[in-house]
Amino acid sequence: MHTAGPLYRSTYQQLTPLGESASQQAYWLLEGIVGISLMDVVLDKKIALSAQQEQLLQQAIARLLRHEPLQYVLGVANFRGHDFVVSPAVLIPRPETEELVQRILERHQQQHPLRILDVCTGSGCIALSLAKELPGASVWATDISPEALAIAEQNRQRLGVEVQLLQADALQAPFPAEELDVVVSNPPYVRQSEADKMQPNVLDWEPHLALFVPDEDALRFYRAIAREAAKKLKKGGWLYVEINEAYGHEVAGLLQQLGFGQVQVLPDLQGKARMVEGILG
Predict the structure, then answer these.
(1) pLDDT at position 48
(2) Amino acid 120: pLDDT
(3) What pTM was computed for the model?
(4) CA-to-CA distance for 17 and 192, rounded, in angstroms?
(5) Which residues of the chain fall below pLDDT 50?
């Protein structure tokens, strides 16, 4: 029989090489594997730790010390209050992307009918969250990676929503639906030259296919998506994209050239340029 306090302290001490994040990661790890809460630690609650849990905990600590992201270690990442299955086949959902979803909800919550396409869906966090929170909407989602789509299908089943998941190359394939009201995408946007500035837990573990674009054509996904959106959106339909803060105005200019109006570069909660939106005139 263990108690929560010493178990937390032991886990924390083993994770100290991770620096300032060690304390929080120790809590999350114990919550995810053992099922104990912060209050359990404070109250030093008695914990019946099975041999299997103890083995899983030690394996998880070893993985974290190799800079594997906690979300991959636990197999889930929280996004808008739901746990999404994640693996190295998909990017870990970010809080900034939650803001993108919130922006869409604020504008389209009362719109019926509503047809939405999510391009480069990855784990499906955008498309599935919109389907969950806009239950009357028709939602499609595409990705080039069959492994990512398999993860998205797991998440679709977990959330119990209807979303059509389709394999497609965002750079070449036409959209699978027409007369759309919303097109949204969080495409690859990290320039190859930025790789040396990235943390090991991102660079060494998250899928490069979903992260990087060549420096000489950093807008390639925005160009392809915006061109196709200009064909498939209804008049008055909206395009929303997450961006690299380094080229927000370039993406905005691209949308304007393709006939989008009311184009805005929007900041995230950290004040960084993170989204571009525009309406098809």
Answers:
(1) 81
(2) 98
(3) 0.94
(4) 28
(5) none
Has 244 been labeled as part of a binding site?
no
135 among the known binding-site residues? Answer: no
DSSP string for the chain: -EEHHHHHHHHHHHHGGGGGGHHHHHHHHHHHHT---HHHHHTT-EE---HHHHHHHHHHHHHHHTT--HHHHHTEEEETTEEEE--TTSPPP-HHHHHHHHHHHHHHTT-SS-EEEEES-TTSHHHHHHHHHSTT-EEEEEES-HHHHHHHHHHHHHHT---EEEE--TTTPPPS-SSEEEEEE----EEGGGGGGS-HHHHTTS-HHHHEE-GGGTTHHHHHHHHHHHHHEEEEEEEEEE--GGGHHHHHHHHHHTTEEEEEEEE-TTS-EEEEEEEE-
Please state, in angstroms and rounded to a whole number, the distance separating the CA atoms of residues 124 and 86.
10
Report whether 187 belongs to an annotated binding site. yes
The CATH T-level fold of domain 89-280 is Rossmann fold (3.40.50)
Domain ranges (residues) in the chain: 2-66, 89-280
State how far the alpha carbon of 19 is from the alpha carbons of 13, 22, 38, 93, 142, in Å: 11, 6, 20, 23, 38
**What's the pLDDT score for residue 1?**
64
**pLDDT at residue 44, rounded to an integer:** 79
Distance, first Cα to last Cα, the chain? 67
Residue 213 to residue 218: CA distance in whole angstroms: 5
pLDDT at 43: 79
